[in-house]
Amino acid sequence: MALQLQLQPTVRNGVFQYPSAIKPFGNRKKVSFQAQATPTRTQRIMEGIAVSGEVGGAGGAYSYSALKRLDQLLSKICSASAVVEEPQKVVSSVPGSVKDSEHVGNLEEVFDVIVCGGTLGIFIATALSSKGLRVGVVERNVLKGREQEWNISRKELLELVEVGVLTEDDIEEATAASFNPNRCGFEGKGDIWVQGILNLGVSPVKLVEIVKDRFDSLGGVTFEGYSVSNISVYQDAAVLQLKEGKTLFSRLIIDAMGNFSPIVKQIRCGRKPDGMCLVVGTCCRGFKENSTSDVIFSSATAKEVGQSLVQYFWEAFPAGSGPIDRTTYMFTYVDPQPGSPQLEELLEDYWDLMPKYQGVSFDDLEILRIIFGIFPTYRDSPLPAAFDRILQFGDASGIQSPVSFGGFGSLTRHLGRLTTGIYEALEGNFLDSKSLSMLNPYMPNLSSSWLFQRAMSAKKQSNFPPDFINELLFANFISMQKLGDPVLRPFLQDVVQFGPLVKTLGLITLTRPQIIPSIFKQVGIPVLLEWFGHFIMLGYYTFLSTFLDPTIRPLIESFPAKMRYEWKRGLEAWQYGAGLDYKLSPSEAHETAKRSDPSKETFTTNSLP
Question: Across the chain, how many H-helices and E-strands are there?
Answer without folding.
Answer: 20, 24
